[in-house]
Design a protein that fits this description.
The structure is a single chain. With 270 residues, this protein is largely without helices or strands.
């Protein structure tokens, strides 16, 4: 008769195995939930100003962020009114619906930054770099944008009434339906810019470069276009009543009545 197999371990009771399994499962679920919660939790408003920081609905009025590196940050709907952001690095950041009234952003790096519906009235952005930035429907009334770089920026329906844009680079920018009444665009670069249906009444465009710009249906009543370069510009259905065109170059421009202005057209379409 064969001897019993003595090396076999005794089986655990079923209840003990089930308890161990439940404990392990609960521990795993707890770990996963903890990791997901920490990943989804937004940064607090008192987090330090660093790259990629998330400040949503935060009150940062008057904060001093001069020269800080906030590239890729999210500052949605935050209050930065009166803040000092001179020379700050905010490229690729999202400042949609942010309050930046009277804020100082001189020489700030804001390329590809989103300012959708931001309130930037009276803000100072002299020499700021805003190439490729999105400022659609933003409020920039009386903002200081002298010599700012806005090449390829999107300013659709943006309010720039009374803004200072002297010497600004707006080449290839989209200013369709923008409000530029009484804005100062003296010496501004607007080559190939889209200004369709823009309101530019009483705007100063002295010496502005508008080569190949699209000004179809734009309102230019009482605007000063003295010595402006409108070579090959599109002015179809534009309103030019009482506009000043002394010395303006109109070679190959498409006039309000769709005529093509001849070579040597200066001050009037010939």
């Amino acid at each position: 008769m064969p001897e019993p197999f003595t090396n076999m371990r005794p089986k655990r009771p079923h209840s003990e195995q089930h308890r161990s399994c439940c404990i392990a499962r609960q521990a795993l679920i707890g770990l996963v939930v903890s990791l997901l919660a920490s990943a989804a939790a937004p940064a607090a408003c008192d987090d330090p100003p660093t790259r990629g920081v998330i400040w949503t609905d935060c009150n940062k009025q008057g904060i001093d962020l001069r020269g800080k590196d906030l590239r890729g940050a999210t500052l949605l709907r935050s209050n930065l009114a009166g803040a000092d952001l001179r020379k700050v690095k905010l490229s690729g950041a999202d400042l949609s619906m942010v309050d930046l009234r009277e804020a100082r952003l001189d020489k700030a790096r804001l390329s590809r930054t989103r300012f959708l519906k931001a309130d930037m009235r009276g803000a100072e952005l002299k020499g700021a770099r805003l190439d490729g930035a999105t400022l659609d429907r933003a409020a920039l009334g009386k903002a200081q944008l002298e010599e700012a770089k806005l090449r390829g920026a999107s300013l659709y329906q943006t309010d720039l009434a009374g803004a200072n844009l002297r010497g600004a680079d707006l080449s290839e920018a989209d200013l369709s339906q923008a409000i530029l009444s009484e804005a100062d665009l003296t010496d501004a670069l607007l080559t190939r810019a889209s200004l369709q249906r823009a309101d530019m009444e009483d705007a100063a465009l002295v010496n502005a470069n508008l080569q190949h710009a699209n000004l179809a249906e734009a309102t230019l009543s009482f605007a000063d276009l003295s010595n402006a370069d409108l070579t090959a510009a599109i002015l179809v259905k534009a309103v030019l009543s009482d506009a000043i065109l002394d010395g303006a170059t109109l070679d190959k421009a498409r006039w309000v009545d769709r005529r093509r202005c001849g070579a040597g057209s200066v001050g009037e379409c010939r």
